[in-house]
Amino acid sequence: MPALSILIKPVSGLCNLECSYCFYKDVTAHREVADYGRMKIETMFELIDRAFEYADASVSFAFQGGEPLLAGLAFYQMFVDRVRKMNKNQIPVQFAIQTNGMRINTEWVTFFSENRFLVGLSIDGTRTIHNMWRKTGLGQGSYTEAIDAFEQLTAQKVETNILCVVTEQLGREPESVYRHLREIGADFMQFIPCLNPLDATAGAYALSAETYGAFLCKIFDLWYFDITHGPWVSIRYFDNLLQILLGYPPESCDMAGRCSINAVVESDGSVYPCDFYVLDEWRMGSVAKDGFKSLAETEQAVRFIGRSIHKSEGCKRCLYEKLCRTGCTRHKEPFDGGMPSANRFCEAYRLFFGYALPRLASVARQIQAINASRQSMDSIYSGEERASDE
What we know:
By secondary structure, the chain is of the alpha/beta class.
């Protein structure tokens, strides 16, 4: 019974900010057609119809940009209505969206709340660091609008994750960033190491392995203190490491040990295997002509997965390979002989695991003990209910 996860670019790379480190602006600059414009209604319908033709376990629709809110509220209202119409088997459906928050208002918040959207909101830590790189076309910072969006979303109890891009500047201030996010009320955080451009010299924002390693160690200290004193704070990377230690597969694709086909749909309906590789070379087909099963079996899909299985000699010998799992393929650019190089953050991960693994393992053991206790109590209550029935 297949499940399906789709990442949709409803306005291609169109955005109302000019973030210096934007990886998608770099990706679109490497295509024959940089901007595919807004998604047509016909394309939306084809996408949704294809999704329910394929999936019979669950479907996840996630929206990203550019800035996906530029598609307009009516687009999403029509999208949700079409999903309800085509979901004839009533399988579970999840909605998610990533936004810079610039267009968030009462109408958007109400829509997200009523339709149970998970919202990923970009806030790069403190005002100073956020405004350093996340600017409008007029060069003005966007921190105030992002914070206002967060306050509106949380006031209406919309599930909101903070997305924080770790640049070199942010990486040098882990404590002030973490404490600031906690002060504004963030309980769910995702720290995303900044991507270097595909084939250009990295900008002043480029994150070094040395800085990233120190950043992870300090963030872990702060997180570990909070979760051991309560309440729980979710940091996606640490959550995934705990899943691995507990014997479960991680949900984050960069920690799976190999790439997967994530079905990224550009606004013209073209489908690609990964958000970081929405490039002409990797175009697998189109929702107008191809089903999701056949798209996952294309030469591009097979080649995309196949190259990711390669491990450098250093990775094969590494003590932490079973946890690191070599990381994201984009962090292994430029390739060597057509195959991924070692992850440019290798030394950061070695430092972090050597520093944090004993405490991380202790948290995993505590979770395991709690789960075992709950299962035991459930068994006791179940036995009491059976005895009562008899």
